[in-house]
Prior knowledge:
This protein is α+β, with helices and mostly antiparallel strands. Helix content is 41%, strand content 25%.
Amino acid sequence: MAVQAARLVERHKEVYGSTDGIRVFRAPGRVNLIGEHTDYNSGLVLPIALEYACFVVSAPNDAGRLRIRSENNQESRAWPIADVPRQKPSRDWSDYVLGVAVEIHRMGHPLQPVDLLIQSDVPLGAGLSSSAALEVSAALALLRDHSIPPLELARIARRAENNFAGMPCGVMDQYVSVFGQENAAILIDCMTLEHRPVRLPDGIEIAAVNSMVKHELGQSAYRDRVRECGDAVEKIQRRYPNVRSLREIASRELDALEPTIPDAVFRRARHVTSENERVEAFVAACERGDIEEMGKLLVSSHRSLQHDYEVSCPELDFLVDAALAIPGVLGARMTGGGFGGCIVSLMERGRYDEFAESISRAYRQQYGREPEVYRCKPSKGAGEVGKGS
Ligand code: ADP
Ligand code: MG
């Protein structure tokens, strides 16, 4: 068991006093390489699961309660287990755990009284999906011995975020947290819910840079984009009645409909259709080891998110442009929902340290704050990491 997990087991004993049946579960955060805002449009995405992860220590209690505590914010909550299915969201961090418990119950799986101790090293609210890492690890910690198919695990976690945390996200974050692999990005088809690993070329490194801002607009803009994509589909259906999502139309076909679609809605749709095509091109470039092309596609993705989808912000645009000016950098783009959070940058192997230093200096000079830089190495998906004794 990793040192971190062993320490957390000791902490669980201190907090809850129990020693029997202690188990430790882990679920990773993610960085999305390419395929942004495509998952809720039944499109293609290519994230990697990170080494940064949420750990949850779980032990049964005989108090008949669900008790949870996060070491990240030092807060605790508890409910009688029988009352859990009737709970309403409280609009804070506990929703991500309680929402999972509610969905587990709704799916007909058993809910047992357990004590959970949570600690995550995924930065919270940075766009690396600490929320999915928490949901998936909490689901495993609540289910314990009751195993369910991995796809159902991802779906339960996503529904918790949609229904309880109130975020109309697609399935990417929870999916890659479950299905992540070492040494590979995961190409997910959000229409069929199938995936395949895509091995990354040897000569590259990946970094995420945290802008340390999260603009208020983010949540409402996300909802607006989901709605605008639905509007685009309605307009497209006048010409192509069988199209049910932006996944089912090519950029070329969409372009021909431009005069019939309001400008903003058209540009949202153009981002999604072109982004699906960029994911395919990126995977092809990856497989033939064309790292220059991979970098260029990241930059095109960013420009599309910046100008067509309009979910970037000055800090992210600055970081992308600053990254592109650093020697050895192949490409960069915003990653995650936008309006703050992180950029992801692809560089030649061996350039990471220099990159981290240069981008930090540039951001500090421009905004007077220190960005966090994270090395992004593909890691394996969620699972049990050990038993305490
Ligand atoms: P992201 O998923 O990109 O990190 P979100 O806004 O979707 O950003 O989710 C962040 C929220 O998830 C935090 O504000 C907090 O409420 C919750 N969260 C995630 N991990 C933890 C944790 N370990 N402890 C407590 N809350 C957490
Ligand atoms: Mg999230």
